[in-house]
Amino acid sequence: ADGARVPVLVIGTGYGGSVAALRLAQAGVDVHMVEMGMAWDTPGPDGKIFCNTREPDYRSYWLRTRTKAPLNYFLGLPIDRDIPRHTGILDAEEFGGITVYQGRGVGGGSLVNGGMAVTPRRENFGAVLPSVNADEMYGVYYPRANAELGVGVVDPAWFDSTACYQYARVGRKHAQRSGFPFVFVPDVYDWDYMEREAAGTVTRSALAGEILYGNNHGKRSLQQTYLARARATGRVAISPLHRVTSVAPAAGGRYTVVIEQIGTTGAVTAVKNVTADRVFFAAGSVGTSKLLVRLKATGALPGLNGEVGRGWGDNGNVMCGRANHMWDPTGALQSAIPCCGIDNWAAGGAFAEVAPLPTGIETYASFYLSITNNPNRAQFSWNASAGKVELNWQAAWKQASITMAKTIFDKINSREGTIYRTDLFGVYKIWGDHLTYHPLGGAVLNRATDNYGRLTAYPGLYVIDGALIPGNTTVNPFVTITALAERNIEKIIATDL
Ligand code: FDA
Questions:
Q1: Of the chain's two ends, which shows fewer C-beta atoms within 10 Å, N or C?
Q2: How far apart are CA 92 and CA 494, in angstroms?
Q3: Are 304 and 292 in contact (CB under 8 A)?
Q4: What spacing in Å lies between the alpha carbon of 466 and ligand 1's midpoint?
Q5: What is the Å distance from ligand 1's center to 101 Cα?
Q6: Is the pLDDT of residue 76 over 80?
Q7: Angle at Cα 258 formed by Cα 255 and Cα 260, nearest 5°?
Q8: Residue 411: C-alpha distances to residues 349, 395, 416, 419, 453 (Å)
Q9: Is the CB of 282 under 6 A from ligand 1?
Q10: How far apart are CA 309 and CA 390, in angstroms?
Q11: Could you give the CA distance from residue 486 to residue 21 in angstroms, rounded to a whole number?
Q12: 353 noted as active-site residue
């Protein structure tokens, strides 16, 4: 409520915010979480909370009047459609050179993502978070994060026989015939549930094209894990459809937080001022960076250091499809949850997930999301005349990612006698190089903050999300975001409270 005073205010309910809320509550601290997206706990007129990828409706996108599907063409035809403007679940946020996809709602990215829960290979960790003790991370915090998130792996025997992973077995065969290491990718999806979906004994989710706009069953989002346990402490309150617009010093070492309440069309319905002893920025890499850069430039937090807004990367995301021969069908029924990848990081700087094309028809296509070692880093800055934060990522910087992804797919195409699909991202366009699912950085650990996420110029202000990670995790990022948050909050509770 307007005028309230809280011990801890957390901005955002994604991985970083949820870890902070649970651990602080367990330590006896009352926490208030502020989330700009919806609660996603109430079914719509069709009885479902979330819509699927084949019929995106008002629930699909954050305040857009037309869908912006990551895979925006099929057979060279655009597939986007008009939708009512609504505070939907997936934000396709457009900057000059890149579209950044993000989850909006209680649970953040865990609502929309594929649940792929990958711990980086230990030999790569020094490049991911150079100032963090790897022994502690691999001995304590990665195991803790994996356990709390409910990470598991597909049963290899079931994988070998189920129709819904025909596409992944084709991916495996082609990878292995070209001599690439093939790996199973762990996921937070409930694998027993998926087996029952295939057996026809439960309502389908992954097998009904649910991903990107939410899963009605099967996926352990943060709503089922960290946030459920945080709520069970009785010390955590969550305000959905509330957006933080300002944080500034107040009397007594506290902070005044300005919060806009919004309706489902995006209109502001109320503005509230809350006083907090401590504030955790957990609005995601883009959300936290945008807030900090604007608050520094406009005088609310002028003492933030010059590293704020720097070190942003796209985790080297790039997508492509391959056209298979008629004797390599990938299956009309495809699980929307990927379960395997091709690891060519050491030799070629690319880790490619074998991804589904859950169209419901046979496409003879293999589809991949590659994470690559793209070295480019962008900076957020405040454009005073436009009144907004901009990101200087250049579209051409994706060429580095394409070159690395090609170390895998050029070889497979040459071995198999196949070609790239040119109809998935436009008319004769091979590479999905206009987007990222994995924004990272903008308030990098040990640069914009101290080595535990403290914004040291302002005691009581912390960053605890993907903004801390300098642009790349070599694999999908949320396990690393979660494990780093576990490490940092343990230190903060022990020394600051
Ligand atoms: P996160 O983005 O999760 O949460 C931030 C929250 O803050 C959001 O809920 C947002 O609405 C809220 N917020 C922002 N600004 C605010 C403000 N001013 N006031 C109030 N609230 C505010 N990763 C992975 O490891 N495996 C995978 O399979 C995938 N797949 C995938 C698919 C798709 C489609 C997407 C979009 C992303 C993925 N990811 C992924 C990425 C993963 O989801 C992402 O890295 C994490 O969610 C980031 O966690 P954070 O805690 O940093 O922020």
A1: N
A2: 38
A3: yes
A4: 8
A5: 8
A6: no
A7: 155
A8: 14, 25, 9, 11, 42
A9: yes
A10: 10
A11: 11
A12: yes
Mean pLDDT across 115-119: 98
Confidence (pLDDT) at 5: 95
Give 369 Cα–ligand 1 centroid separation in angstroms.
18
To the nearest whole number, what is the mean pLDDT of the chain?
97
Q: From the CB of 13, is ligand 1 less than 6 Å away? A: yes
Ligand 1 centroid, distance to 402 Cα (angstroms): 24
Mean pLDDT across 216-231? 98
**E-strand spans in 252-314?**
255-262, 268-281
DSSP string, 332-385: SS--SS--EEEEEHHHHSEEEEEE----SS---EEEEEEEE-----B-EEEETT
End-to-end Cα, the chain, rounded Å: 25
Residues composing the chain: 497
349: nearest Cα among 227, 475, 193, 174: 475
Is the Cβ–Cβ distance between 316 and 404 less than 8 Å? yes
From CA 187, how far away is CA 183, in angstroms rounded?
13
Q: Which atom of ligand 1 is nearest to the CA of 18?
A: 51
With a 6 A CB cut-off, is 287 part of the ligand 1 pocket? yes
Single out the catalytic residue among 35, 210, 353, 490: 353
Query: CA–CA separation, 204 vs 196, rounded Å?
Result: 9
pLDDT of 427 over the 90 cut: no
Q: Is the pLDDT of residue 75 over 80?
A: no
Q: For residue 216, how far is the Cα from the chain centroid?
A: 18
